[in-house]
Amino acid sequence: MTQPPLVAIACQGGGSHAAFTAGALHALFGPHHAERFTLRGLSGTSGGAVCAALAWAGLLTGGFADARRRLEAFWTHVAASDPIERVVNDWSLAFARLPVTAQLSPYAYCALAEPRLRELLGAYLRLDALPAGRAGPALRIAAANVLTGEAGIFGGEDLTLDDVVASAAVPPIFRAVRTRGGLWWDGMFSQNPPLRDLLDLDPKPRELWVIRLNPRRRAEEPMTVAEIDDRRNEMAGNVPLDQELDMIRRFNRLRLTSPDVADRYAAITVREIELDLHLDYQSKLDRSPALLETLRAHGARRAAHFFEDRSITVLPDGRAA
Known about the structure:
Strands 1, 2, 3, 4, 5, 6, 7, 8 and 9 form a 9-stranded mixed β-sheet that branches. Helices cover 41% and strands 16% of the residues. The protein has one domain (6-81, 127-143, 154-162, 189-314). Helix 1 packs across helix 9. By secondary structure, it is an alpha/beta fold. The mean pLDDT is 89.
């Protein structure tokens, strides 16, 4: 009988669009798919880091069932459900879509987004309740050092709540987050999401599954200011990811001709699913229950594509599929 592949899952960041990631992970960890792969590790950036951390904490504590429970509970409670939250959410989106740019420092007013995120993460991550040693699938999340410009990768072995908030601290909505002796912003400025850190795990995964939130391609030229901003954001979010995927292709090819490279690096197959709904940049700030539920349901449907050949984007010999 064929052994299930040893897999690492990488979750791209994208604000509220990470509800798509939550839906995909929820489905992968469910009864139809969970026995079809062996999970070696998870990585994520920003909203992807939140999903990866919640899933990882659940896996360490209660397996797939607990991982699913934490993902569902977090995204249910992050939604703007009560009347006041809905009004604030609608007004915030309307303001964000105005054809003007408001220059307002997050240090000029009382922080709003960060305390709410901390409250929810504290309730559903519950890092203090994790088993000693935190043995299980690995976790790697990305942030960017504001002062040095360097990438930071935080591991699950000593993960703190500050680390997860730092990975999601997109300016200017968030202030920089102080953790590990530095000041950190959203990991989209470094690795989005971390890939090579998953490939360094021992034992090494044989497949890397990427949940991509920013579409690679668009069918039409962006012409309005809003369309240009949307596409610029998508492309900027994809640059770190596509650079790391290109590195994997190169190493896969080098393995065929270099014994030294073959000894150090395992051939890796990369599979991807992509959020392919046409959503504008401002929708990454939208916490409306309808949008989040749509994204979660779409992610759940897309998860099955990981088990189909059409999801392969990098072959073990380095060719693009």
